[in-house]
Specification:
Order of helices and strands: HHHHEHEHEHEEHHHHHHHEHEEHEEH
Pfam families: DHH, DHHA1
Largest sheet: 5 strands, parallel
GO molecular function, one term: 5'-3' exonuclease activity
CATH class of the largest domain: Alpha Beta
CATH topology of the largest domain: inorganic pyrophosphatase (n-terminal core)
Distance between the termini: 21 Å
Number of strands: 10
Protein name: Single-stranded-DNA-specific exonuclease RecJ
Strand order of the largest sheet: 2-1-3-4-5
GO biological process, one term: DNA repair
Oligomer: single chain
Keywords: Exonuclease, Hydrolase, Nuclease
Radius of gyration: 22 Å
Strand content: 5-15%
CATH architecture of the largest domain: Alpha-Beta Complex
Shape: globular
Length: about 450
């Protein structure tokens, strides 16, 4: 629902221009007006938006550090060094990990994977990843959808003689980790034309560069990897513009005829029988894959995406479907409690909302924040209070008018851990600093949003 305070900002469009474009492109004038309102005001821009093609994809060689990254991976493949792919526990991280593992298997690499546990490790490149890499004899770690702010873990790997390649799409800090390569289109020195790739989108470009380096055909690769890229991009709520629009368009086509047994069974339990749409990903496929990391272990979702055995894939798909139903119940209870808290505390006087409870599962607080953001149209923060551990862990969702990256920079000195991008973020803070953090969020939003 829309808050009574919702304000619409409509661009002023010259009627003559839209009529001329409509005639030139043979399109309804209303459609042209809608596209112009979104910034597509020339024939070329409109054609690219309505008819995206693979030829519009940029070559990956302008991504920062892509050359040393591909050289090091190829060296590891040639020398049979073990490679560890480390991802995040959300859909973007899981699909990106599945993509990189699949691509490296195609290169006949010695590859293993690791996904963190949401409840015991939290987001990012944790110290357990370093321990796991040492124990498994990995000589190279490749991160996906994480790592851009994990300086200490990268240093620990370096001290152990383990090289690190970071692939990430989150906003970098003031300085980069001392990794062998940091592939991120949001780096200040990036020459890559499109900044808004998802984590799996960055992994897709890295895998593409690897196949180019090895002079291997990429058509088959595109057929099996684009579906993963589309799922992660939509589920991570990335803007479906530019390259993302191309990747999602072709990814949906491949998802419709997927050869991945796990995705075939997941579509069955989600009752998707026609060609999938972004809505199918956002409301059926994505939530079921996410349910593993929210309530149990994200490795279950990764196993499904890599599974070849139909019977095992069906078992996992049905289990994820059950987890998703459980998640829906927990979420609805938490949302109602959060709304009651907002209203009883009169938080609508602020330009941001911060709700908290010891009863909420950490895996659903991001969903609670998203529901509040949509209901009240303002940045929302939902926090689970962990008294035994002495910490508060929260997730944040924001409206376009407030870039969370700027708020996260202000929060960083207060938190033990925080990160994210313009629309979403997460943090952990000692309980004794939680009220300070809460007031900081209120003050920041009240100053920025008028």
């Amino acid at each position: 629902m829309n808050s009574p305070e919702t304000r619409w900002h409509l661009p002023r469009l010259h009627p003559g221009d839209t009529r001329r474009l409509a005639r030139e492109l043979d399109l309804p004038e209303l459609l042209v007006r809608l596209l112009a309102a979104r910034g597509y005001s020339t024939p070329g821009q409109i054609r690219q938006f309505l008819e995206p093609t693979g030829a519009q994809l940029h070559k990956p060689d302008t991504l920062p550090d892509i050359a040393p990254a591909t050289r090091r991976v190829c060296s590891a493949v040639n020398n049979r060094e073990r490679i560890l792919v480390c991802g995040d526990y959300d859909v973007d991280g899981v699909t990106g990990t599945a993509l990189l593992v699949s691509a490296l298997r195609r290169l006949d690499a010695d590859v293993i994977s690791y996904l963190p546990h949401r409840a015991t490790e939290g987001y990012g490149f944790s110290s357990r990843v370093v321990q796991f890499a040492r124990a498994e004899g990995a000589r190279l770690v490749i991160t996906n959808d994480c790592g851009i702010s994990d300086h200490e873990r990268v240093a620990a790997c370096n001290d152990s003689g383990i090289d690190v390649i970071i692939t990430d799409h989150h906003e970098p800090g003031d300085y980069l980790p001392n990794a062998l390569a940091v592939v991120n289109p949001k780096r200040a020195d990036s020459q890559y034309p499109f900044r808004e790739l998802s984590g799996v989108g960055v992994s897709f470009r890295v895998a593409d560069a690897l196949l180019r380096e090895r002079n291997l055909p990429r058509n088959g690769f595109y057929n099996t990897m684009l579906e993963l890229t589309a799922i992660g991009t939509v589920a991570d709520v990335m803007p479906i513009i530019g390259e993302n629009r191309i990747l999602v368009k072709y990814g949906l086509e491949q998802l419709h005829q997927t050869k991945r047994v796990g995705l075939q069974l997941l579509k069955q339990v989600a009752q998707i029988k026609r060609k999938p749409t972004p809505r199918d990903i956002g409301f059926a496929i994505g939530p079921r894959l996410n349910a593993a990391g929210r309530l149990e272990d994200a490795r279950l979702a990764l196993q499904l995406l890599l599974e070849d055995d139909p019977a095992e894939a069906r078992r996992i798909a049905e289990l994820l479907d059950k987890h998703n139903r459980d998640r829906q119940k927990y979420q609805e209870d938490a949302v109602q409690e959060a709304i009651a808290q907002v209203e009883s505390e009169g938080q609508t006087r602020h330009r941001a909302l911060v709700v908290h409870s010891p009863n909420w599962h950490h895996g659903i607080v991001g969903l609670v924040a998203g529901k509040l953001m949509n209901r009240y149209y303002r940045p929302a923060v939902a926090v689970t209070i962990e008294h035994d551990a002495g910490i508060a862990r929260g997730s944040m969702r924001s409206i376009p008018e407030l870039n969370l990256s700027e708020l996260l920079a202000v929060m960083k000195p207060i938190c033990t851990k925080c990160g994210g991008h313009a629309a979403a973020g997460g943090f952990a803070v000692p309980l004794e600093r939680f009220e300070t953090l809460r007031q900081t969020i209120f003050e920041f939003a009240n100053q920025r949003l008028t």
